[in-house]
Each structure stands twice: as structure tokens, then as C-alpha cells.
Design goal:
With 274 residues, this protein is of the alpha/beta class. It has one domain: Rossmann fold. It is built from 13 helices and eight strands. An eight-stranded mixed β-sheet has the order 3-4-2-5-1-6-7-8, with helices on both faces. It starts with a strand and ends in a 12-residue tail after the last helix. 49% of the residues are buried. The structure holds adenosine-5'-diphosphate and magnesium ion. The site of magnesium ion has 4 residues, from helix 1.
Length: 274
Amino acid sequence: MRTIAIMNQKGGVGKTTTSVNLAAGLARQGQRVCLIDLDPQAHSSIHLGIEAAGSPDTIYQVFAGGRTFDQVRQLVKENLWVAPSDLDLAATELELVDAAGREFVLKAALERADAEQQFDYIVMDCPPSLSVLTINALCAASEVIIPLQPHFFALQGLSKLLETTALVTRRLNRRLRVSGILLCLYETGTRLAADVTDDLMRFLQASDPQSPWSQARVFNSRIRRNIKLAEAPSFGQSIFDYAPGSSGSIDYGSLVSEVVSGGIAIPAPLAAAA
Ligand code: ADP
Ligand code: MG
């Protein structure tokens, strides 16, 4: 089983869109996939047609100890399950503040549910923060994918994010790898997108080999801006069902192939130094 955290502490960069369409694309290939929604805004749950507000069967209850993972994950399509969230999940941060082992609640819940046997992939949609929920995702994950929107400030947040990942790798989860940076909301043909992409490559290449990001790779797949991707959530469908011929469907299809074939392309950030 591969457990992938889709993470960036910025909002609006394509985390949810990537989580949903990566999960749905993998499921279409016959992989058994569970998408775990770790954002209290519940966008990925809603994107797949699950409105969990008011239900006790949410990932919040897994953190609170009221439900097992198996009780909350639901089948939404062939091979695709969702562990939905709702606004209650916003309370988890405070509720876990003094809890021993609070970083490992999700990991333990997945182990108790024997998730390894049930799924080929787990995809986790993280909230736009480096909160305890995100740390739980990183502790349960085997890899991280970082969606990035190519604009002027994109690289500023990236080093912070990679440092956090490296810290978690060193202290809490030795098997964690950054499998790639994914350019989302990509404006083909614009000067800005090309410049930022060049800067990103240079930033990665020029990094100290000991730095957390020196080994990170940029996915060849780029997710172009496509209105169909923004429309699909309101129909409760992935891009593959909503607009199969669209550029969004082509781009996420390409990402799915890259994830499946590429496996884990990057050595652990700071693994050697750890
Ligand atoms: P995040 O989860 O990082 O906050 P989202 O995936 O929710 O980001 O994307 C933010 C907004 O941009 C959403 O309205 C989404 O539908 C839209 N969006 C995401 N990716 C694309 C894209 N490639 N083309 C057009 N709209 C997109
Ligand atoms: Mg989101």
C-alpha cells in the first residue's frame, strides 16, 4: 500500500482537486483507493458527493475515538472509498493538544483497520496549514506530493514546507519521501509560468545536497488551468466522469500514470543526515 499526503500550507493551490482526481484516476485503473479528507472544509468529501455534516461517521470521530476507520469510510464508486470530514474536524487541533502520541492517531487507526490489506492506495487531502492534522497525515504517509501554483511567491512557502517534511522524516516517520512537486493551475504559454518553473528547477538543483529539497523532482505532468476542473465539484464527480475529453482529464490521467509508474522517485529528504 502507498499512502500519499497531498500537502501545501497554502490554500487554493490545487490540493483538493489533485486529491480527488488522483484518487479517482487510480480507482479507474482497478486500484483500491481510499481518500481521507483531512480538511474541516470537507471540499474533497463534497467533491465526491458526500455531505457528512451532522453525521457521526466522519474522520473527526476517528480522531475523537468515537468511531473506527472502517465505520466511517464509505464506498462512493467502484474501488473508491472516502473517509469524509466536516467542520467538527476543526476542533481536533485543540482536543489533541495535550494527548500523548497525538501525531500518530491516524496512523494507529489505519493500522487497527488493517488498511494495508484493504487498499492499494490511500490519498490524504491536507488542510491549508501545518496543523496537527497535517502532521498526522505526514506520520501516516509513505510519501508527499506538493501541488504548487506557479506564481511569484510560490517558492517562499515551499522551503518552509520541505523543512517541515524533513523534520517529520527525521523525528517521526523515517519512511516518508517527497515523491514530487506538481505544478497546478498552470497557464501554458505565459511568461510567468515558464519563469517560475525555471526558478523552481534552479532552486531544487542549486540546493545544498543536505538540504531537505535537494532531491525533489517536479512531475512532468502539469495541470493546466481548465474550467471543467472547477465545475466538476458541484456535480459531485471526478474530472474523468464529468469531462472525460477535457485537458483536466488528460493532465490528471498523465499524473496518475506518473504516480503509478514512477513510484517513489526521490530519496528521503535529509535521510542521509538523519
Ligand atoms: P486547495 O485544496 O489547495 O485549496 P483546490 O483544489 O480547492 O485548492 O483549488 C482551488 C480552486 O481552484 C477550486 O475552486 C478549484 O476548483 C479550482 N481549480 C483547481 N485546479 C484547477 C485547474 N487546474 N483549473 C481550473 N480551476 C482549478
Ligand atoms: Mg482543499
